[in-house]
Amino acid sequence: MSVLDPLTIADPGQLTADLVHLSTIVDSTVPGWTRQALTEADVVGRHWVRARMAEAGLDAHIDGAGNVIGVLRGTAPGNSAIMTGSHTDTVEGGGRYDGNVGVASALEVVRTLRANEVRLRHDLIVVDFFSEEPNRFGISCIGSRALTGFITAEDLDRVDSDGVRFADELVRIDIDPSALLSSRMDTSRIKAFVELHIEQGPYLEEQGSDIGLVTSITGIKRFRVAFRGRPDHAGTTPMNRRHDAGCAAAGSVLAIEQIASANVDGRGTTGLVTFTPDAVNIVTESAELWGEFRSPDLRWLDDAGTEFHSAVQREGASRSVEAQLDWLPSEQPAGMDDRFIEVTAREADRLGLKQSRLYSGAEHDAAIIAKKIPTAMIFVPSKDGRSHCPDEFTADKDIHSGANVLLNTIITLDRELDFA
Ligand SMILES: [Zn+2]
Question: What is the ipTM of this complex?
């Protein structure tokens, strides 16, 4: 084989079969394909992935943070590594491809390297990250945060709406919270991380592209706003004498839409609004809203935050309603490594695949890992841009193309990266 010839995955049917098998490990009491972290289905799924890693020839284990980790030893002395992987947990009522494609493809990459007797110099680490999707404790990417040291004891102390502690839920599925907090990897030895994932949006399909090269992953600024007005009779209180917290909240919801609509990459969403008292004949005394802004542009996010703060003050002041805006833990935009983007572009070219560059509006483990390790992300198209729903679909041929780009990117990075 010449270095000019790209390799293709050894057994595309096996990759598809692994995805089909994962889709059978679900919570059958919930519609769609549901394998949420902290449930029995997720525990069974991750043990199946560990067994599959071992069958593929990886030295596999589940670490203290619930991550399934498999290692294919490299040939060079020293211990530098390249890492790939994604997640197999799903949202409630989710699909069969989000995350699963990256894990199943990584397994097929390993089987292909072995079938072709390609020995990498670097160790190849394959990870199925624990609990990537946001859970009911308001935290996402638990496994990748644990590996990179971005999780704290306070995070594990969070409680859900029933007062259950996150740490106690972890114990219930045999994850020791103190082991989770000490599951940090020596990231200095990992020279590259590459994640293959479905796009979860319509861009690649619209462009007629086979492959997406991710330039950056969106930043997220989340907030909570509390409005406090005065309860009054809905029939006898003239409009100009009201302190209606509900109207101040409604004006702020529209401000979110207006601020985000003014920028092509801006996103603004109100996810939750509550009015108190919740009664048709009383002017609303207090209201609360939770929302977020997203953009790959940190400056826009900051400007949107400033503009929203003014809007909230204005909506409150014009009704003599107190308004309190609190910013919640947020994510900075994560840039992908420019050199690696060029490597994935070259490999997609060599495979004759049409490619587009785009930023990711969804959060991924890659955004957490990129804070410590140079990272690349490869997307494959999502039918009609649908995701986080049972209709989520990516064609086998697109998944196989993505796996081929992942395979050749890893081989090229192994050859070209400085080995130290
Ligand atoms: Zn995902």
Answer: 0.97
